[in-house]
Specification:
By secondary structure, the protein is of the alpha/beta class. It has helices at 23-32, 69-85, 105-108, 126-132, and strands at residues 9-15, 41-43, 46-57, 60-66, 91-93, 119-122, 139-142.
Length: 144
């Protein structure tokens, strides 16, 4: 089934400071209204999940180190709650943290195991979901 991703909320990995300078975050800023300075939650036609820290040097914010998976998990739960409470929206979930942040798909994908059916995932996670959540069906939109 073909899905119209242009009307979905784009879920991407961010840094806590909301410096959307590269990867999916840059795409979100340039094309979907992600606001600079917003690194967590809904912004424009997007939803930011932090996967990197931020640091301030001489009053200026810089992207920091990759967050540990256990630090990312509460942000994923927050997103899942948001998706559950907004069933009228469809969410296009990218491989958050698996690009520039350098985390492994097999460590991040399972964090979304309880996501509702209005979440569509990058097809790169299909094998992981099939192996870890046998019997549950997930939706896929393609890859970023």
């Amino acid at each position: 089934m073909a899905i119209d991703t242009k009307n979905m909320i784009f879920v991407f990995g961010s840094n806590i400071a909301g410096i959307h300078g590269a990867g999916a975050a840059r795409y979100a800023k340039d094309h979907l209204g992600a606001a600079m300075g917003v690194g967590i939650g809904r912004t424009g036609q997007c939803y930011a999940i932090p996967t990197k820290a931020a640091k301030v040097i001489d009053g200026r914010a810089y992207i920091g180190d990759t967050l540990p998976v256990e630090t990312i998990l509460p942000f994923v739960h927050e997103f899942i709650d948001y998706a559950c409470n907004n069933p009228h929206h469809q969410f296009q979930v990218t491989r958050i943290g698996c690009g520039l942040a350098g985390l492994k798909d097999e460590d991040i994908a399972p964090l979304f195991g309880t996501a509702p059916s209005n979440c569509w995932f990058d097809s790169a996670w299909q094998q992981i979901f099939d192996e870890q959540f046998f019997g549950r069906s997930f939706r896929y939109w393609g890859t970023f």
